[in-house]
Amino acid sequence: MNNNTELEQGPQLSHASRIGNFIVRNKAAIAATGVLGMGAVSGLMNVRHGLDEVTNAAINQIIHSGISAATLMKIHELLAKRVKTLAAEVVPVVIPAALTTAICYTIHKFGIPYLREPSAEPALSTLPTAVVIALIMPVYHVAHHSKRISDKIHHLFKN
Fold first, then answer.
1. Separation of alpha carbons 85 and 7, rounded Å
2. Is 53 within 8 Å of 119 (Cβ atoms)?
3. Cys staple from 119: which of 13, 31, 39, 57, with CB 3.0 to 4.6 Å?
4. How far apart are CA 21 and CA 19, in angstroms?
5. Higher pLDDT, 102 or 12
6. Domains of the chain: which residue ranges?
7. What is the pLDDT at residue 46?
8. Rounded to an integer, what distance in angstroms lies between the CA atom of residue 3 and that of residue 29?
9. pLDDT band per the 50, 70, 90 thresholds, residue 5
10. In sequence order, what are the beta bridge partners of 116?
11. Using the 8-state DSSP alphabet, how is residue 113 labeled?
């Protein structure tokens, strides 16, 4: 490729970089969609208990998702900055995912004092969060830190 074409089109981005750029540019929309979507899924997990339980589980999930979305991404970033080895790249993924699942289950199991009752099916209400966070955290991590991870892999094979 000649320099003129590259200047006109910009440098070629890797797939992970393109995903990372999309996530960064659309964080608020992605978070809002996730919060509402997870609320709907959690509510549906309680459909056999009636409309009150569907609403209760959905609201519990929306509250949890709204709080945890911002907080746990900050925890992820703090942990990611401290990662020194390639093996340690797992830490900023596993800890926020485990915390999210534990907090979600606690809210569904015990409710929120003075605000929300517990969900009828706390384990089922937590299942979508556990699955989604297990899928999203690795993608989020790689998308935001692909250059550093790539450098570590190259350094590993170079030595």
1. 35
2. yes
3. 57
4. 5
5. 102
6. 20-158
7. 78
8. 36
9. very low
10. 112
11. T
